[in-house]
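This part of the workshop introduces the protein records we will be handling. The question running through the whole workshop is how a given chain folds. To make this concrete, we reproduce a full record directly below:
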Amino acid sequence: MLRKAKDCIGFSVVAIDGFIGTLSDIYFDDSEWAVRYFVVEVSSGSDIIKTLISPLSVGKIDWEKKTLPVSITKKRISASPQQSQIDLPISRQYEIALRRYYEWPVYWGQSEFLDTPAVKKQPSPPRIPGDEDAAEINESEPQLSDEDSYEKDEDEEEDGPMLSIGREPDDEEIIDLEFSTAEQEGVYSAALRSFNEILGYHIESNQGEAGVLDDLILDDDEWVCRYLSINFGFDSKDKKVLLTLHWIADIDWGMSRIHITLSQFDLQNSPPYNSAAAVSREYEKELFDYYDKLK
């Protein structure tokens, strides 16, 4: 279902065995517009510690109770790799440490030095009781070790093989580098962006400024962004529209501006968006029909 990202902020994050903390931000990939991490503020004595949770560990959000369940225990989260700060940019080494600790699949591709290659782990053939020949064949087949890892194919069904991520390497130099915080040794992820940061960015059409980014509309099944919510009300009343991502030309992160290929007139005449209501299929069809005429 389509949801406003702004509505998620402040939700209670609940582990298998109880409350963890509060959702304070959402980190997304600016190339694929996919949610990569939920930023959770965890109370630790008098301090507030931020930790990252992948959508892969998130269950179905309870929008009425405003809770985000995660399939991890509080103890496991408290023992997870930590850095002094996780504000962007965060290092790829830290992401690798988290990925291996929680056994999350890789989302950023493979690195010959910093990561182990992904290989499909084939399930063993079923063993039929009493069939000794089948048992011998099963035992004689080469078995993959725990060091083999697996990355799910896009077309693979949900009930496919289990995910198995490689163990930490024995090479102490690699281990030291992965957990290093030295600026000269760190490799930083430039693709990750903060939802809190991008809010309020100016929308620049091919005719000039056309409004501000008001929200991101997320698919809470796949955790990807489907639309930008743009507010171009210049008076006391808000006037909002949804923009599909293919109209984005580029984003100037330094100047906080999103450049689009639509004219200001075309944007303002798109079907109005009622942010108080859910995005319906009928509204989406109307929206796509309108944008299709502008191509």
Notes: The helical segments are 5-8, 74-78, 92-102, 132-140, 172-178, 195-198, 264-268, 281-293. Residues 281-293 form the longest helix (13 residues).
